Amino acid sequence: MADITNSQEHQESPSSKKDIQDLKEDLQTFFKTSMAELLTPVQAKLDELTEGLGAAGRAAASALDTAESLQTEVMTLKRSEALLQTKISTLENRWRQFNLKFRGIEEGTEQASDLKMGLLLLKNLNVVMTQEETEALQGHPAFEEVQPLGE
Description:
Elements: H1 2-95, H2 114-124, H3 131-138, H4 141-145
């Protein structure tokens, strides 16, 4: 009986192997198709994200270039400002000798109103005013307050 069972197994084996082989191929086809269907939206999303990252990278590179350019401009402007400050100081010192100098006017008088300072200057320089100018100024309180130096 063992021989008969053994021979039946050998006879079923080729058909069983074929069935198993067919089943294996069917499963492989099914999994490949299923995986392709599942991976398609994932791949699309990955492509979208990759594209977005590329755009973000380009934008970041552009912003970095702009920042570096602005930093260079700021440094140039700071150097120019320092140079201009030096030139202004030099010019102020050179041309100070040409400033008008008033002797006999107390220090701090320049803080008075412009009208008082102008009237003081006119009186001390003995500027002769017309009758109309004198009458126009006589009613003003600043005119009365200003006395010529030495009086």
